[in-house]
């Protein structure tokens, strides 16, 4: 969904990921570049710093988007560890995650994983992501960031088990693109 050239600016190697916030099919706000080992992404947090979705102005007047935005609360924490990137659900509602490194590499479709409040999941595994790369694969060469992207939706899920088939039908969601350098 994001253009791959966004991450290929010369000399910009200090970030380990970039986060985009979406409401349905519309990106809201700027790309958030992450340098610190962990990042809190939240709607409202009395004290705290990170990516505050509540401060972003949205043109979306959909009641469902407004309702889900208000339920994000303390949101999630992304943490870069030695073994990969972990997502901790700090909200009072489930989050849903899709990542190439969470599933069987031979699977034709990636599963969406539900993470309940108070639980964590290793959403991205660098070693596994590199092993998924096929240097001679033409499709991989055209889309070098596919295996390095994780999608996370708040409150509402998508995929085979849900009425929403695509994440772009979810009211509030994140796209996390990892720097593979």
In short:
The chain has 181 residues and is mainly beta.
Using brief descriptors, characterize the structure shown.
single chain, 181 residues, mainly beta, Tumour Suppressor Smad4, 6-stranded antiparallel sheet, 5-stranded mixed sheet, 3 helices, 11 strands, 12% helix, globular, transcription regulation, Mothers against decapentaplegic 7, SMAD_FHA_dom_sf, Dwarfin, SMAD_dom_Dwarfin-type
Please give the structural blueprint.
Blueprint: E1 17-23, E2 26-34, E3 38-42, E4 51-52, H1 63-71, E5 76-81, E6 84-89, E7 95-99, E8 113-115, E9 120-124, H2 126-132, H3 138-142, E10 149-154, E11 173-178
Parallel strand pairs: 3-4
Antiparallel strand pairs: 1-2, 1-11, 3-5, 5-6, 6-9, 7-8, 7-10, 10-11
CATH C-level label: Mainly Beta
Question: Which segments are poorly predicted (pLDDT under 50) over 5 or more consecutive residues?
Answer: 1-11, 138-145
User: Helical element count?
Assistant: 3
Strand content: 25-35%
CATH architecture, by name, is Sandwich
Tell me about the largest β-sheet: 6 strands, antiparallel
Look at the helices and sheets and give the structural class: mainly beta
Report how far apart the termini are. 20 Å
Q: Give the domain tally.
A: 1
Strand and helix order: EEEEHEEEEEHHEE
Give me the count of strands.
11
Instruction: Write down the CATH topology.
Output: Tumour Suppressor Smad4
Strand order of the largest sheet: 2-1-11-10-7-8
Describe this structure in words.
The protein has a single domain, classed as Sandwich (Tumour Suppressor Smad4). The longest helix has 9 residues. It is built from 3 helices and 11 strands, in the order E-E-E-E-H-E-E-E-E-E-H-H-E-E. The chain is mainly beta and about 180 residues long. About 10% of the residues lie in helices and about 35% in strands. The N terminus is likely disordered. The strands form 2 sheets. It has a 6-stranded antiparallel beta sheet with strand order 2-1-11-10-7-8. It has a 5-stranded mixed beta sheet with strand order 4-3-5-6-9. Strand 5 and strand 6 form a beta hairpin. This is Mothers against decapentaplegic 7. GO terms for molecular function: I-SMAD binding; transcription regulator inhibitor activity. InterPro entries: Dwarfin, SMAD-like_dom_sf, SMAD_dom_Dwarfin-type, SMAD_FHA_dom_sf.
């Amino acid at each position: 969904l994001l253009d791959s050239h966004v991450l290929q600016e010369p000399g910009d190697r200090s970030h380990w990921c970039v986060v985009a916030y979406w409401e349905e099919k519309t990106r809201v706000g700027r790309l958030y570049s992450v340098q610190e080992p962990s990042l809190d992404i939240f709607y409202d947090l009395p004290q705290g710093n990170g990516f505050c979705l509540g401060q972003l102005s949205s043109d979306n007047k959909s009641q469902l988007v407004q309702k889900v935005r208000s339920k994000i609360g303390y949101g999630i924490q992304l943490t870069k560890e030695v073994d990969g990137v972990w997502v901790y659900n700090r909200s009072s509602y489930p989050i849903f995650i899709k990542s190439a490194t969470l599933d069987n590499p031979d699977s034709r479709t990636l599963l969406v994983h539900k993470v309940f409040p108070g639980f964590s999941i290793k959403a991205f595994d660098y070693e596994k992501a590199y092993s998924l790369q096929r240097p001679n694969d033409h499709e991989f060469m055209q889309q070098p960031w596919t295996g390095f992207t994780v999608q996370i939706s708040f409150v509402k899920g998508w995929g085979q088990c849900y009425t929403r088939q695509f994440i772009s039908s979810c009211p509030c969601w994140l796209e996390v693109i990892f720097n593979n350098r």
